[in-house]
Design a protein that fits this description.
A two-stranded parallel ribbon has the order 1-2. It is built from six helices and two strands. The protein has helices at about 1-10, 35-40, 40-50, 55-60, 85-95, 115-130; strands at about 75-80, 100-105. By secondary structure, it is mainly alpha-helical.
């Protein structure tokens, strides 16, 4: 499904991974379904509304009224000082035969939305390369 959505929204699907300085502009899709998403989000949305979601929030957001199980968890992104806790968490999940990667924030960057955004291109790239997409 992800591959189909990327090809539907991007002339070059790898652009989804762009994460430099501006989350409203980086990797903005060429087209959306519905098209109005481009008018009220990203760079255009920021120009109209001042505060709006960056383009990742509205391209992949999922909401669930039920608890989300961790049975499909593939990667955890943590600060270096939380690596041991993440390993314990993965061990306690008891997911035999399934590898859950634990990646540390690069350059000692503190965890936070801007760090997660900037480094998400690396994390998503890791996951996509492991799945062969």
């Amino acid at each position: 499904m992800a591959a189909r959505l990327l090809h539907a929204c991007y002339s070059q699907p790898d652009r989804y991974l762009e994460t430099s300085d501006d989350p409203f502009v980086d990797g903005a899709p060429d087209r959306t379904e519905p098209p109005e998403l481009l008018e009220h989000n990203g760079e255009r949305g920021r120009a109209k509304h001042d505060r709006c979601a960056d383009r990742r929030a509205w391209t992949w957001e999922l909401r669930s009224t039920e608890p989300v199980p961790f049975d499909q968890l593939a990667l955890i992104h943590v600060q270096p000082n939380q690596y041991r806790d993440a390993r314990a968490f993965v061990r306690d999940l008891g997911a035999p035969g399934r590898r859950i990667r634990i990646e540390q924030t690069r350059g000692g960057a503190p965890a936070g939305t801007s760090t997660l955004y900037r480094q998400s291109n690396v994390m998503l790239g890791i996951l996509l390369s492991e799945k062969g997409e």
